């Protein structure tokens, strides 16, 4: 996937998440029900896929996380970040490295 397609994908997902947030805050009961029926399965499937990709070994390391070439595995950062979501999503650390260059909307 090139950077143009990747950005289009990110924009589409961001728009869908914004719609979910807006509906949760301002939607009618009917809109909430429709969004829940269509959105929750998508979000849970995405989270399950992410967790499967970042399966950790007995040392808490995963193959999917970035690592120096000389290291076989590295501690999984995704699980650390996901652990913060149920308690306080504002604690998530801003993106660093090449992900920090992505424009915020």
Set down the secondary structure blueprint.
Layout: H1 3-26, H2 29-53, E1 61-62, E2 74-75, H3 77-84
Antiparallel strand pairs: 1-2
Written account of the structure:
The chain is mostly helical. Helices cover 54% and strands 4% of the residues. The chain has a two-stranded antiparallel sheet with strand order 1-2. The mean pLDDT is 79.
Major beta sheet, strand line-up: 1-2
Mean pLDDT across every amino acid position: 79
Estimated radius of gyration: 17 Å
Given helix and strand content, the structural type is mainly alpha
Beta-strand segment tally: 2
* Pattern of helices and strands: HHEEH
Low-pLDDT segments, ≥5 res: none
Residues in helix, %: 40-55%
Sheet with the most strands? 2 strands, antiparallel
Helix count equals 3
From the spread of the alpha carbons, the general shape counts as elongated
Beta-sheet strand percentage? under 5%
What is the first-to-last residue Cα distance? 22 Å
Keywords:
single chain, 105 residues, mainly alpha, two-stranded antiparallel sheet, 3 helices
Short description:
54% of the residues lie in helices and 4% in strands. It has 105 residues and is mainly alpha-helical. The protein contains three helices and two strands.
């Amino acid at each position: 996937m090139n950077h143009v397609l990747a950005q289009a994908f990110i924009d589409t997902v961001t728009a869908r998440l914004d719609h979910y947030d807006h509906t949760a805050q301002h939607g009618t009961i009917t809109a909430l029900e429709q969004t829940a029926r269509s959105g929750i399965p998508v979000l849970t499937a995405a989270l399950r896929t992410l967790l499967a990709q970042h399966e950790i070994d007995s040392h808490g390391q995963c193959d999917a996380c970035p690592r120096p070439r000389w290291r076989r595995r590295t501690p999984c950062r995704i699980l650390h970040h996901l652990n913060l979501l149920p308690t306080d999503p504002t604690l998530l650390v801003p993106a660093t490295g090449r992900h920090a260059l992505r424009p915020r909307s």
